[in-house]
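ARCHIVE ENTRY
Sequence with per-residue tokens
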Amino acid sequence: MANRSPASSLEQFEQEFVRPRPGRTLIVGSAVYREKEDRRKRYPGAVGVDMLEGQGVDLVVDLEEPLPDDLGTFAHVECMSVLEHSRRPWLLAANLERMMDPGATIFVSVPFIWRFHGYPSDFWRLTPEALPVIFPNVEWIERRLASDALLDGYRVNALKRDAHPFLARTETCGFGVRR
């Protein structure tokens, strides 16, 4: 039997709590780069949107702006590692809610602690308590922080210009249902 690395805390969260509603699925931030999985392959007929063209992107859409008329609605939405890159995540969240059918499910993850990473920019970190604030029409089944490691006493001189301290990646994860 091949050695398999243990599931990350994000994967554990997904396995334990995420139960996507069957039907049309929207993958937000769908561009595939490096080792990132093309999550569209998990769902028949999934639509991948991103604000930039690239592999894995079906439609280039800025979800902070008014929605295109032909985008339609969805039974399930995934928004993973996207909200931190939005200049105005509350507008993006409002548009996602507009595109969700009543009873649609949503899986959100956003770094709470992680290095600066501009794709193209990195603006925000959100707590689990922020999810109901920016997604007021979602009933959250679970919201929590998920981290794979804790660093005890690790110090980095972050006073130098352009220095970014390393901290253990911790994600804010949430799964909910559109009211």
Observations:
- The longest strand covers residues 100-113.
